[in-house]
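DATA SHEET
Item: assembly model
Revision: 1
Owner: S.N.
Input lines:
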Amino acid sequence: MNLTLKIWRQKNASDKGKMVDYKVTDISEHMSFLEMMDVLNEQLINKGEEPVAFDHDCREGICGMCSMYINGEAHGPDRGVTTCQLHMRMFNDRDTIYIEPFRAAAFPVIKDLVVDRSSFERIQQAGGFISVNTSGNTQDANSIPIAKDAADEAMDAATCIGCGACVATCKNSSAMLFVGAKVSQYALLPQGQVEAADRVLNMVKQMDEEGFGNCTNTGACEIECPKGISLENIARMNREYMKASMKG
Amino acid sequence: MSGLLKSSIGRKYAMALSAFFLMFFLLQHFVINVTSIFPDNGEVFNQLSYFMGTNPLVQYVLQPVLLFGVIFHFVMGFILELKNKKARKVTYAKNNGGANSTWMSRNMIYSGIAILAFMVFHFNDFWVPEIVDKFIEGNSQEGKDYLHHVQEMFQNPIRVAVYVIAFVFLALHLLHGFNSAFQSVGANNKYTKGLKLFSQIYAIGVPVGFIIIALVHFFNH
């Protein structure tokens, strides 16, 4: 496959940045998208040019690091995959592919395609945890009865890898699918009940302070989420938030 | 409860609740308008219009609440749009929104602006003359022929065309908005499919009904 790539290049956080055209040749359809990027970078290094900076780590769809906006979609045109799981067979010979960083005021670009997603970490720190006494008398989690449905739903919510595709794809740059998943995974379990009200209030407050937009229920986040996190989690967060606000 | 409207979720609830209220009003407006095409020379329509135009509860309690609801929904909609624009300062060179969301859901602000423009037009047609007649000129409303005014207004083909286009925008707005309001108040459960069907029937049925009423008046006279 021979491809034309239009890639966002930005030297650093303060650089204005621009789209730059590149050509890559002899790309195998069996390659992952990141392997294709590796080929491009090897070409650039051999020519003495600066390689394209992009985030990656596990390359097996679980770490949530890869973060490209490919041809107008987060993680590209395939469904239920991260960019590292996206194969070049999804594209055709002589295609032009747009590759941009995840765009949101709360995800500032650090360099090229690398964005700072530490706003997600600060939201987690605001309440995405349970307090457990680790003095040595910790109760075995398996001794607490949990309904199968609740356990399954909590597990589904917990599969969120925090990649930020929901924010990148949302026309409002809203982080509600991410926060909804993180609130839900505890709200559904007995261990999460004690801090439930503070958790949702603090996480939503932090989300708003980070500058994410407001959810308008377009549902784009659910479609583009590589882990299939459902909009039900946003509805649950809304209920939890209202319940907690009424209490407070 | 303090600061609820300052939070993104609080504003989401507020938008949804004001939308539910406006949709309830729209339904009662529609039901009354249907009576204007009854073959009874406007007897029922005039009686209902007289009641709505003179009942103190409707005039001095429900009408101001309605006006507040309308203004609130529009103002909050604009505030949210501005905040959302601020949340992405640099836009994508290529964005394939159609791959994951409906046109209606992505363009609520534009369908909303079209509805707002129509409402100015509509208020000028019906509400302002009613208020002038009642409160400024102080005319008696007893035996008033409300239907005659409606028929007169819908003789103008340009006005009818504006109404038809406006109701198409209303249908587009409601096709996303109604169902979205359920999600906003946290109602995503086993009834979601049924609620979606109900909201779609409403979103298409009510605007189409309004269009039919306008066309009936236009072609009958």
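QC remark: Chain A is about 35% helix and 10% strand.
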